[in-house]
Records
---
Amino acid sequence: MGTISLEHSSRLYWLGRYTERAFTTLGALQELYDKMIDHGAGYTDYLTAFGLTDKYGSSSDFFRSFLYEETNRDSVAYSLERAYDNGIVLREEISSEALSFLQMAKDTLNKSSHSNNIRLSLLPLRDTFYSFWGCIMDQVYDEEAWNLIFCGKSMERMMLSLRLQVPYADAVQEFQKLCRRLRFAPEGTPYRCDPERLDKLTYFLNSEDNYMSHTDQAIGELERIFEVQP
């Protein structure tokens, strides 16, 4: 590809982020649903983790919004739609087959919204995401494009790990994966990793105490660690 344009750099990066956001949000909601059934847990802690207010009133309204409402920027449906929008523009880079998996994911999500057993009807969706990522790995031959997509994927996984405060060992594992991705960020794109922010983020994650007490600062550094550079 040589030098990637700013527009395509952004779309490749956000294709990775939005697809991963839809996948990880789906997993987090399924885990929360199981906890609510088994332990009577509520959903307000989830909202708090993202700085959101409770305007839902019931768990069923909460889950339906976070799964299906495209006007809810934190929903699976919203992220999946944004991923698809980027995928259409990038069809030649990612292949029509990869794009078809995003369409399949949208169809599966929509179909599940009419099911009497939402939990069961959503089971095929995770496999569709895995198929999409497998197709990206197999069909994207341009290394710069591939790296930008997976930088976005790792960035989003790390962001959600911080917001949901996953166990420290899991957060460190995600961070190490992100660092590997950032080392291979393509030189021919306006997107660059900010080394100063990476150093600060490394400090916030160098111990479990730092991780637990500096989550907000870590999120702030991560949000701006991979920006367009002049």
---
Amino acid sequence: MYNIFIDGKEGTTGLQIFDRLGKRSDVNIITLPEELRKDKNARRDCLNSADVAFLCLPDEAAKESVSLIDVNNKVKVIDASTAHRTNSDWVYGLPELSGKRREQIANAKRVANPGCHATGFISTVAPLVKAGIIPADYPFVAHSITGYSGAGKKTIAVYQAEDREAALSSPRQYAITLNHKHLPEMVNECGLSQKPIFNPIICDFYCGMCVTVPLYTRLLNKKYSVQDLRKFLTEYYQGSNFISVATEEDTPAFIPANELSGTNNLKIYLSGNEDRIFLASVFDNLGKGASGAAVQNMNIMLGLDETVSLI
């Protein structure tokens, strides 16, 4: 039996992790009374008595939680905030990136859970850059459509209100200063020499995400076709439990962003022509983009089947 503490259980990601683990017989979830939820000493006791602690908190609060853990304590920490995603003392928790990364996660005490948008971008771009197919200085542009649940409880309430404003029925561009918080991990994990132009869009559906990355074939390190990249990525993710690459026959004319909602799966689509290639990753922003990825990392860190309590 593993003792699990979710610091920040009242947030969307924390609640999702709680729901996923609540059905399991191999974990005991440590809980705090509501009045002690923000009590530093009470949180310290819970963090130090856990086998695994999930941090579902704002960045500064996540850093504080780490500071509350005794130096020699063996608790394993999975941080869902952006606080440690480019920290070299932490392992970036996307196990499908390589066998080495999976091994690092399995042996880690500190794992930074990937951001949702970043997961979509990195899953398509990182393998291609690291294989030398795309140069590190490629001028990437990425667009990401997401359901409103990724913005947290307050935004969910606004979208679900009966008297909401008409603008919420339309897709809305945000982070228009082009300084989105996921950019550092996207650059770091893909080994890029410059930040991509990243365009996130929040839409009027609860959960789901589609991250698209268009490519000019003339800017690749040599001439590659859609078929070449599909074959490479299919082989790259062969054997993965949660990431797959759609065949040409299974690539639809319209790609719904909520296709994989409720799962921990991520599907990559490729299309285009000899001049321009379309890459898209579709997944659940609450699944592989947040709580599902966190539970998957926990399973790996504990030496369990990574698919336990995940669809």
---
Amino acid sequence: MKTNFHTHTFRCKHAAGTDEQYVKAAIEGGFDVLGFADHAAWDFPSGYVSHCRMPADQWHDYRDSVLSLKEKYAGQIAIRLGMETEYYPRYMDQLPRLREEGCEYFILAPHFLFTEEEHPYTGISCQEDDELKRYADQSAEAMATGQYCYMAHPDLYMMYRPEFDKASMDAADVICQAAKEAHMPLEYNLLGLRDAMRGHPRGYPHADFWQYIRKWDNDVILGVDAHDPEWLTDLPVWDEAQKRLRALGITPVTDWK
């Protein structure tokens, strides 16, 4: 089985292509399962407008589009409806409602802690050790809720850290232990790998992180993190990810069930 559950749409304001173009590209790329997981449509009571996710009022359009494609391409590819979402404790009551309205899964992706209304992007803030500890602790707290299927780019915190130091190791241990206890895979992120292979590294997937966490023997899943349909047909990146994980003795899982 070749699966990808991490696919975005134009609604997040930083991805290209139509929903159907992603489906066609996934079929061309040999995928058996394509999961859409656009950035969650959090409804911010403050009126805050996010620059990197669909507005709450686009959720139903997103849902209906994906479900329509699921029916249209049945027999050619299995399509699943999800969301990539943070853990915002004050707004967690929104996730069960989205489940009730058809969302099949949530990917944990702590791009921001507490809420983006008042907190900076974690890729930047985790340069500070105390912020990194909060990132790890809050990720563990999120995994313990049972709301999420796996954690996307767990090594996002290495984006701007100069080295994989003691604080980085401690954070990795907290995340890996929580994932193990929650039976959640960790994602090896192909968006970051793709950028690195093109000479624009973003700090993840971080080689030292993945070498270090081998001791935990976590389940690992590949995520294309597609923001353009053509990324689903980029076989060299997919093959390189498999090669790097094999060198670490890791065989990726194809689902979290």
